[in-house]
Amino acid sequence: MSKQNLTGGDVNKDNGVERPPKQVHIRIQKGFGYKMQTTVQGLSDEYKLMKIVRAFKKEFTCNVIVTEHPEYGEVIQVQGDQRQRISRWLVRMGLAKSDQVKLHSPDERS
């Protein structure tokens, strides 16, 4: 899997406009019962979320969906506490730099 496979086209094509780096927020939330879920929000619009979902399913062997969050917009929901693994994967794949990824604790809201 490469960064090129996760985009809709040329990754470096920005039409000459300098875009500021986007923060990627990775949060953990309590699901049903004792289950936890990890949400990923803030990935660049140039990436196809469904391709990232397929890559996450393959990499982390868990259920992954894209859902609409009232506050954060489109987010990826991953079964279980996968914050560290997702963070490392995003940096390794070049989808985000390590200083762009913000890991939130369960009690943190912002």
Automatic annotation (TrEMBL):
Key word Translocase present: no
- Name the PROSITE patterns for this protein: SUI1
Every SUI1 domain range: 24-94
Enumerate composition-biased segments (Basic and acidic residues): 11-21
Whether Iron counts among this entry's keywords is: no
One GO MF annotation is: translation initiation factor activity
> Which lineage do the record's taxonomy fields give for this organism?
Eukaryota, Metazoa, Ecdysozoa, Arthropoda, Hexapoda
Question: Which Pfam family, just one, is annotated for this protein?
Answer: SUI1
Membership in a protein family: Belongs to the SUI1 family.
Keywords attached to this Swiss-Prot or TrEMBL record, sorted alphabetically, are:
Protein biosynthesis
Q: Where is this region: Disordered?
A: 1-22
Q: What CDD domains does the record tag this protein with?
A: eIF1_SUI1 (cd11566)
The gene for this chain is: LOC6901682
- Name the chain's protein: Eukaryotic translation initiation factor 1-like
